[in-house]
Prior knowledge:
Blueprint: H1 3-22, H2 32-36, E1 45-46, E2 49-50, H3 58-74, H4 76-92, H5 101-130, H6 144-155, E3 157-159, E4 165-167, H7 169-185, H8 193-216
Helix pairs in contact: 1-5, 3-4, 3-5, 4-5, 5-7, 6-8, 7-8
Amino acid sequence: MTRLTRFILSGCWMAIGFLLFHGNGFAQVVPLSEIQNPDPASGTTNGGQVSPPPPSNQTSSGNSRGKDYVLSVVGPNAFIGVVIRSAVDQGRDRPSEWKQGAAGFGRRLANNFGQNAIQQTTTFGLDVAFKLDSRYRKSSKTGFFPRFGDVIVQTFTARTKNGRRVPGFPTVAGAFASGFIPVAAWYPERHGPRDGARIGAVALAGTLGGNFIREFIFRR
């Protein structure tokens, strides 16, 4: 694949995120605050599920989801994660074609930033398209194992507008897109689909680990 093709592919993917961020569609996602603390004046409950808020609240909902998306790509936690993954890749010399030294670390840093951007953009885009919310929220349960169970459930499911849980294909698709797209676009040519699947599985495991940290280490 030529450098021009790689540039176009990466640019188009980031453009998708830009369009989704500024489009009307992502105002459909329900913010976590409305699911955690439903306002009786803005919706009713039905079997423990919160009914969708009125249209007047949709703009703030979209702003909340869009802000979380931007932070997941360029926020401080995202930056720390990218640096840590790059340091691990540098220590393991992966890919070996990128060599060591400052230049090698810079390439790995750019690679991991791109992988994270692809993962978050894919997840966010599918959330918007299917009116889902794949973000993690703290468990209301007590005890390690019930809370850890919520970590697993929330990693592999998403919420609908009324709070119902459905299979979390946006998260899974985002993880594996972050593996297959870089392998096809800018990784050394010896890498193939198997490497893309491996990278995607690692990204999905990283999402699970990140949710574990959010649950047991972060206060909120």
